[in-house]
Amino acid sequence: MGGDSGEYEISLKTAANIFEVVDRTKYVPYLIHLKGNSWSYTDSENVVYQIDKNDFSLQISDKKVAFDTVFIAIHGNPGENGHLQGYFDMLKIPYTGCDLFTSALTFNKFFCNMAVKQFGFPVSSSLHFYHDEKMDYEKIEEMCGYPCFVKPCNSGSSVGVTKVRDRQELVNALVLAFEFDDQVMVEKFIPGREMTCGVVKLDGQVKAMAVTEILSKKEYYDYEAKYTPGFLELVTPAEIDFLLESQILSYSEKIFTRLGCRGVVRIDYIVTAEGVPYFLEINTIPGQTAMSIIPRQVRYRGWDIKDFYSSLIEESFY
Ligand SMILES: Nc1ncnc2c1ncn2[C@@H]1O[C@H](COP(=O)(O)OP(=O)(O)O)[C@@H](O)[C@H]1O
Ligand SMILES: [Mg+2]
Predict the structure, then answer these.
(1) 161 pocket-lining for ligand 1 (C-beta < 6 Å)
(2) 310: exposed, middle or buried (C-beta count within 10 Å: 0-12, 13-18, 19+)?
(3) Distance 28 CA to ligand 1 centre (A)
(4) Residues 209, 301 contacting (CB under 8 angstroms)
(5) What's the rounded Cα separation, in Å, for the pair 299 and 31?
(6) Which ligand does the CA of 194 lie closest to?
(7) What is d(CA 153, CA 130) in angstroms, rounded to the nearest whole number?
(8) Contact, 236 vs 217, CB < 8 A?
(9) Which of 280, 76, 290, 77 lies closest to 185, judged by CA?
């Protein structure tokens, strides 16, 4: 838990929530906190032990604690972008969720969109820029029009994301987005309802969990809407017709499989008035605080939350 992104606090809550439900008859869990170079474990007496990064172990008095698997509960860097996945791959320590390649690919919104579009799913039009590249405003306006979205390619929780309505706002939004990443994208606005679908691989089988509608009291699902109580209403299952629901569930299972995902992920869409679900993004370490969408979908499905996490832990060994 922890990490080095704007979602640090959310990660602590996600981890605390998972830690609480881990089946103690099967596992002995340790909460390991990562922040920059400090990777540590704090025991019940508040004694802090540093992780030995040579083999991701702990030395607690005369006992060495090594781990059978790691439940990665870090949103953003370094848990969602492939960095930790590469580290654990090198140490041959299993971990939950997507592998290095899938994590790195899906963490970059632009390159992930390109892949998902190529697989045949509806995705909005967008343009990609590196920091040192000349911005072609005419091309942006021609391809995306206004309003459009400016986003850092590698980010989350709407940090650095702006909806812009004219050239001046576009210029300012690009400056802001480049503060968070050296790659940004400009994406055509898709008007519609925002839906999200959890997908999980359990016992080797890919299952779309449910479609949840995200009703934001803000103009869009920004950081404030995400984390301020009352700014957001989540409806599970979404009040949509059966055919559209089946389509979103089926798209989600296919996208999960095509991208080579593992564990539990959440795929976000904007559904247009014509009923077309546009892929928006995939979160490979979705929020799992008590209030988050994934635990709600687990409850909606009538699954036992303890068994759900035991299955995810078991999946990490395959
Ligand atoms: N192309 C788009 N059309 C309409 N709404 C969008 C578009 N892109 C982003 N949004 C809105 O902005 C929010 C944040 O964008 P998103 O790409 O999901 O970034 P983040 O990773 O920060 O959540 C979305 O949840 C949605 O409400
Ligand atoms: Mg999002």
Answers:
(1) yes
(2) middle
(3) 38
(4) yes
(5) 24
(6) 1
(7) 10
(8) no
(9) 280
Per-residue pLDDT of the chain (318 residues; tens, 9 = 90+): 999 998 999 999 999 999 999 999 999 999 999 999 999 999 999 999 999 999 999 999 999 999 999 999 999 999 999 999 999 999 999 999 999 999 999 999 999 999 999 999 999 999 999 999 999 999 999 999 999 999 999 976 677 999 999 999 999 999 999 999 999 999 999 999 999 999 999 999 999 999 999 998 877 777 777 777 788 899 999 999 999 999 999 999 999 999 999 999 999 999 999 999 999 999 999 999 989 999 999 999 999 999 999 999 999 998
Sorted by where each starts, the structural domains of the chain and their CATH numbers stand as 8-103 (3.40.50.20), 126-188 (3.30.1490.20), 191-315 (3.30.470.20)
- At which residue do the structure tokens 């920004």 appear? 222
187 lines ligand 1 (CB under 6 A): yes
95 CB within 6 A, ligand 1: no
- Name 76's Cβ contacts closer than 8 Å, sequence gap at least 6: 3, 4, 5, 6, 7, 11, 155, 156, 157, 285
Distance CA 269, CA 271 (A): 6
pTM, two decimals, is: 0.96
Give the pairing type, strands 48-50 and 126-130: unpaired
